[in-house]
Amino acid sequence: MHPILKPTLRRGWRDLNTVQFGVAPAHARVLAPVDTATGSFLTLLDGTRGLPLLRAEGRRMGLPDGHVDGLLRRLADAGLLDDATGGGPAADALRTRADTLDRLRPDLAALSTVMPQPSDGIRKVAARRATRVRVRGTGRVGALVASVLSGAGIGQVDVMDGGCVEPWDVAPGGLPAESVGQRRDAAARRAVRRAAPGRPPRHPEGGQDGERPLSLVVLTPRDGLDAFAPAPATAEQFVAAGTPHLYAGVIEGTGVVGPLVLPGVTACAGCLALHQSDEDAAWPRMLAQWHSGRQRHVPACDLALSTTVAGLAAAHALAFLDGAEPALTDTRWLTSTPGYQWRTQRTPAHPRCPCRANEQRKGERTSVDQVPHETMSG
Question: CA torsion, points 61, 66, 68, 73, in degrees to nearest 10?
Fold first, then answer.
């Protein structure tokens, strides 16, 4: 182990014996008491020294026996310590790809900040490169989601869509202007490749064609109605296969992110549809009318709103893939122009839905709780 104080957490002395690591309250920590010799020793934790050398330096500085190991334990327990050489074989392989690692250093720094154990950050970054995600729908939201996931280190990002790129599909970070008239799926795949920080490693545990197993599907339909009121049939194959899937899109002036569906465990599109029908008896009739006929107008999809929705969807997808506690299960977030205040809508499992997720939620409420204009903090 080559200990290093997490460099993204800025250090400052609150007084002569107290060091604060970090600025933002979410991840800031305070270490005390810190004497002068220990304060000097902290400067040696830069990842260039192993434990034997650090112990020798500690003795040279007059620190008592066991002090260095005790200090390192305190720092590790507080989530302030990283390991410049840890993370396992996949992390070691990533370190040999300097060009790829340099592209991913901001993401690595962010993960190292929030991950409690040394080496967790680079271990998560390396794991992303062995992960496969599918994005269905490559309009202003979907193409950007796919590019962000690829740029953040997801090794394989599949994209699926039909038709050709229209001028109104173009968006910064998504489909470029020169792709107008090209097949949407082909143009999106090129955008994904451009965003990727180097070629991912081979995955020997894939199927017969060497493909990685699918970890997540992000459903970003160009028709925002299919994100706001998703048809259960659209996700039947993912529910049957047990594949987690996340919804995101824009309809009119409203953006929606979620729910994240863990099949058989959390609420699915069928649960949402049943709740909407319970709340509004006319909902099925209205939905049928909205879906009938061909839409001849360009859909309303504000660029700033679609970019916001895509960023939030990609962030939640990455957090889930990194192993964080899912924040969008049984929940979705909505925001509307021009106020852009996020509000939370609970979407619990429905007792009549054949997905059977309600059996995992016995004793919980089954109504939809709308919290108007609840501003999202953090």
Answer: -170
Nearest-10 Cα torsion for 207, 317, 351, 333: -160
Strand partners, 3: 83
In order of start, what are the domains of the chain with their CATH numbers? 3-83 (3.90.930.60), 89-127 (no CATH), 129-371 (3.40.50.720)
The mean per-residue pLDDT over the stretch 264-283 comes to 95
Q: Tokens 């107290």 belong to which residue?
A: 18
Write the pLDDT tens digit of every residue in 110-165: 999 998 889 999 999 999 999 999 999 999 999 999 999 999 999 999 999 999 99
Contacts of 116 (CB under 8 A, 6+ apart): 79
| Cα–Cα distance measured from residue 285 to residue 282, given in angstroms and rounded to the nearest whole number | 5
What are the tens digits of pLDDT across the range 191-231? 999 999 987 766 555 444 457 889 999 999 999 999 999 99
| Residue 54 to residues 48, 84, 98, 290, Cα–Cα distance (Å) | 10, 14, 27, 68
Which tens digit of pLDDT belongs to each residue from 32-44?
Answer: 999 999 999 999 9
Question: Measuring CA to CA, which residue among 239, 238, 256 is closest to residue 349?
Answer: 239
Structure tokens, 271: 């649960």
Burial 103-116 (b: 16+ CB within 10 A, else e): bbeebbeebbbbbe
Distances (CA, A) of 369 to 82, 143, 283: 42, 31, 17
8 Å CB contact between 147 and 280: no
Q: What is the pTM of this model?
A: 0.88
Helix H or strand E encompassing 290: helix 283-291
Asked whether 101 and 66 are in contact (CB, 8 A), the reply is no
Residues 29, 278: Cα–Cα separation, whole Å: 47
**Distance (Å, whole) CA 273 – CA 296:** 26
- The pLDDT value recorded for residue 369 is 35
Q: In sequence order, what are the residues at sequence separation of 6 or more whose Cβ sits closer than 8 angstroms to the Cβ of residue 256?
A: 224, 227, 228, 247, 248, 249, 250, 309, 332, 333, 334
Structure tokens that stand for 187 in this block: 């143009």
d(CA 378, CA 312): 13
